[in-house]
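Task: sequence design from structure.
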């Protein structure tokens, strides 16, 4: 769930809880306060993930979290894949690792980058690698 949406929901729950407490409806106030308190660990976990490195994409290759850096020589068909449904669309970061024959696929919704920024980053970094390889830089 989006961090901002979670904060809005928690603020509303706190307001409802205070309202019912003042209105002497303690059970309803206790219930909404309980739901509010239940949301705190989820919010803190979401906030912690903001600064967590998910991917490193540079002119050398792609690294997922603490895995080894995969060189662009060993990567092909890197792309952003979009899947459209009646409810909307889902976007995935997909690339193929040649040595292991493994297809890596990650939901972009869980990343802190949108699909157009990721496409642009992949284009730029792959281009830098190819230019360095060709000796143009």
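Answer:
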């Amino acid at each position: 769930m989006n961090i901002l949406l979670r904060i809005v929901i928690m603020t509303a729950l706190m307001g409802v809880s205070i309202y019912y407490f003042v209105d002497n409806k303690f059970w309803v106030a206790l219930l909404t306060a309980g739901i509010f308190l239940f949301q705190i660990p989820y919010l803190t976990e979401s906030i912690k993930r903001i600064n967590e490195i998910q991917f490193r994409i540079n002119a050398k290759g792609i690294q997922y979290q603490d895995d080894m850096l995969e060189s662009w020589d060993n990567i092909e068909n890197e792309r952003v894949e979009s899947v459209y449904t009646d409810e909307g669309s889902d976007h995935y970061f997909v690339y193929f690792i040649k040595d292991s024959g493994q297809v890596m696929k990650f939901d972009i919704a869980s990343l802190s980058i949108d699909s157009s920024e990721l496409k642009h980053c992949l284009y730029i970094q792959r281009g830098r690698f190819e230019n360095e390889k060709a000796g143009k830089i």
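Helices lie at 3-22, 26-50, 115-134.
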